[in-house]
Amino acid sequence: MSSRRIRIDLAYDGTDFEGFQLQPRGRTVQGVVEAVLERLAGGRPVRLRAASRTDSGVHARKQVVDGRIETSLDDHALERGLEALLPRDVSAVRVATVPDSFHSMHHAIAKTYRFRMDLSRHGDPLIARYAVHHRGRFDPELVERGLRLLVGRRDFTGFADSRCRVRERVRCLDRAEWAPLEDAGGCFVFRADGFLTYMVRNMVGTLLEIGRGKRAVEAIAEILETRDRRLAAATAPARGLCLWDVEYASDGPVDAPTVRH
Predict the structure, then answer these.
(1) Is residue 40 located within the same domain as residue 9?
(2) 18, 47, 49, 54 from 30: Cα distances, Å
(3) Is residue 7 located within the same domain as residue 85?
(4) How many CB atoms sit inside 10 A of residue 213's CB?
(5) What residues are labeled active site?
(6) In this structure, which of 99, 118, 154, 203 has its CB flanked by the most CB atoms within 10 Å?
(7) Is 235 within the bounds of a domain?
(8) pLDDT tens digit at each of 261 positions of the chain
């Protein structure tokens, strides 16, 4: 029986999880998936590392994890086993053996997040787990002006949470857009080479205030220049956020993802 490194592409509804990463207490995506892999590996433990440590309540359409496993099952059998044993709010979309040098976080070249908004009058209960209901004014022209100021290689300290422990705060944000959807709502789309803790949710919170007319568009430039988190708005709720895509050079050319309902 041989040991090998596998990559798993996961999708999950983050509502009932305390985030991806293992916690002393509470249900986590990592804990659930590792428990199933251990069972498939005949009781031998498997430890995973992820492209992104999504927070409590945050969803994923494509989260990439990797880890070493000792098993006689091939990739297809592992994928079928995960499909059979994982709970309904987690899905293993793909399982593949990768070189032992592969690292899901360090080798990612870009990540895309979507933040979904419900702009309907009363709020749609059918999307309430995955969208933030926004009451009142929302001016897409003001929002788009604010989004344009975010694009580029910048220090995003002003949009990072105080718990962020990363020293290097410069990120290249090459896509920041507002995309209307068919259900009286839309989503923010952000693509970058990496994101800081709460960065997307803090940007969205500030953009929503700009869209309400409560904050000037120029506030974005001031926050970036001063790197002062106190100048940004409150953090937007987690339920609207979804890790939409993680890209790797080894996967070949990848176009920016198309926003779909």
Answers:
(1) yes
(2) 10, 9, 8, 10
(3) yes
(4) 12
(5) 55
(6) 203
(7) yes
(8) 689 999 999 999 999 999 999 998 899 999 999 999 999 999 999 999 999 999 999 999 999 999 999 999 999 999 999 999 999 999 999 999 999 999 999 999 999 999 999 999 899 999 999 999 998 899 999 999 999 999 999 999 999 998 887 888 899 999 999 999 987 799 999 999 999 999 999 999 999 999 999 999 999 999 999 999 999 999 999 999 999 999 999 886 544 444 333
